[in-house]
Specification:
Strand order of the largest sheet: 14-15-18-19-13-20-12-21
Distance between the termini: 30 Å
CATH class of the largest domain: Alpha Beta
Number of helices: 13
Largest sheet: 8 strands, mixed
CATH architecture of the largest domain: 3-Layer(aba) Sandwich
Radius of gyration: 23 Å
Structural class: alpha/beta
CATH topology of the largest domain: Rossmann fold
Number of domains: 2
Helix content: 25-40%
């Protein structure tokens, strides 16, 4: 029997409509072929899960190209076009049996609000209707009717903070293989809700915990084959922004339709409970000053690079400097000019630099005088996890400036710091601090749990959940910016 082959690859990035910094080719880690497969195998990543599904049945995964980047502004059209050309050329060669795409689902370009849908539609036009095409998405994806019309099975992460990237890829990979075997005929039911979850959107807390548990129970019982609840990236000004609840039956769509109808109605009815509240920054810093028993790991809600913000907010930096005491702390700031000045001065030099506040304008830049204690052209790290455990990431030019006991980690590009290895690779040990700042709202909590107490703090900025302050135009109307009367409607396919 000829070994089956699965075509995988594409582009994975989460975009923020209101971040003016475009993501160019140099923002991406690009892999292909055997190297891409080797890097992803046995990692907690969507491609890693697809590979696991293939390995289990002796199939082969081929990766024409995979572009991966952290969250940020929209991706340059030329980058998407370059990736798409490679994937479409591979599709035209036709030396595969199925397609399983490890994407994010929340990407934009300046001209496209649904680039993943465009990629899927053009792949489908080449391979025809009979080749299985599945995909693994982040649960913060923007799911469009075009994606659902083209994709045979779409699997979302089931956890936030995200811990199941590999399991999600496994579901997508297994579905593609089951379709090849003739044991799965996906029949989709789905509903769209014009609403956002804003702050209270962890899947290990109510109300999402209960909804996810009911979906999982339906899958475990065999009532449906797969179920996903997409909570959407909250900073996409695109048509149709909102939640998507979906389920696949095997053949008969009746059970999937019933499950989606119940979950969508309950999600809509829980909409007010999904507006969360966070502790104040000043209260958290006061605890650190008073001698909290463990380091406080703070997620900067207002400038979450993990949500696409630029990472140059100085709100927390101002607060740390205003404490009036020498508190051991680590604070990241994106500022390429400051990095260049520190690197030019060299390690050991005392320098004065002005940092931050260029794009995140809710607080002004800060002028610092300190000692350069670390600097470099770049470094690589491997996530220790559990979120994205085993994945390799890269840090570009950096410098660390010590101002008393405060370590300001300066980078030329923004990073979310969701794993402590980001700090360590630049010479800062998080365990030695009283306060560690991350540019993340949720995902850092998994990877820092062994080090300290993880708290997302209420800070203003581009990724704050105060969405009424953002200039949404295309995406409206949606709750809670607009008051909407709705009875969720279920649509079916298959």
């Amino acid at each position: 029997m000829t070994k089956r082959r699965i075509l995988a690859g594409g582009i994975a990035q989460e975009s923020h409509s209101f971040n003016p910094i475009r993501m160019g080719r140099d923002s991406f880690t690009i892999t292909a072929g055997a190297d891409a497969v080797a890097r992803a195998r046995r990692t907690n990543s969507t491609l890693g899960g697809i590979i696991d599904a293939a390995d289990a049945v002796g199939a082969e995964v081929i990766v024409p190209t995979l572009y991966r980047a952290q969250s940020g502004g929209p991706v340059e059209d030329s980058v998407f076009a370059e990736m798409k050309a490679i994937m479409l050329e591979a599709a035209r060669r036709g030396d595969f049996d199925a397609i399983a795409l490890p994407l994010h689902g929340g990407m934009l370009t300046p001209t496209l609000h649904d680039p993943e849908g465009v990629l899927m539609q053009e792949l489908r036009a080449i391979v025809g209707p009979d080749v299985p095409l599945t995909a693994a998405f982040d649960l913060h994806a923007h799911v469009t009717p075009e994606i659902l019309a083209t994709c045979d099975l779409l699997a979302a992460y089931l956890t936030n903070p995200h811990a199941d990237q590999g399991a999600t890829g496994l579901r997508a990979g297994r579905a593609a293989l089951a379709m090849l075997d003739g044991t799965l005929k996906p029949a989709l039911a789905w509903a769209h809700l014009p609403m956002l979850t804003l702050g209270n959107d962890r899947t290990d807390e109510e109300p999402l915990q209960g909804l996810q548990a009911r979906a999982a129970a339906a899958v475990a019982s065999g009532a449906v084959h797969d179920a996903s609840i997409f909570n959407a990236q909250q900073f996409l000004d695109v048509p149709g922004l909102g939640q998507v609840v979906m389920a696949y039956s095997n053949g008969d769509v009746t059970a999937a339709k019933a499950l989606v109808s119940e979950l969508a109605a309950d999600l809509w009815n829980a909409r007010t409970r999904l507006i969360g509240r966070y502790p104040s920054l000043n209260d958290c810093l006061a605890r650190a000053v008073a001698g909290a028993p463990r380091p406080l790991i703070l997620g900067d809600q207002g400038d979450r690079v993990a949500a696409g913000a630029p990472g140059d907010s100085t709100v927390i930096l101002h607060a740390l400097l205003g404490l009036g005491m020498d508190l051991p702390a680590a604070m990241p700031i994106t500022d390429p000019d400051a990095v260049a000045q520190c690197r030019a001065a060299a390690v050991g030099a005392t320098v004065t630099v002005t940092v931050g506040g260029r794009f995140s304008t809710v607080a002004p830049p800060v002028t610092l005088t300190g000692e350069v204690i670390s600097a470099g052209e770049g470094a690589s790290l491997i996530y220790q996890g559990p979120a994205e455990k085993g994945q390799r990431a890269y840090v570009g030019p950096f410098a660390v400036l010590r101002v008393g006991a405060l370590k300001v980690v300066l980078t030329a590009r923004p990073y979310s710091y969701i794993d402590p290895e980001y700090y360590r690779v630049m010479g800062v040990e998080p365990r030695d601090q009283k306060v560690v700042v991350t540019r993340s709202g949720y995902h850092f909590t998994l990877n820092y749990a062994a080090i300290g107490e993880c708290i997302t703090v209420d800070t203003p900025g581009m990724s704050s959940y105060r969405v009424k302050e953002l200039p949404f135009t295309v995406a409206r109307p949606f709750y809670p910016v607009d008051e909407i009367t709705l009875t969720p409607q279920v649509q079916v396919k298959g």
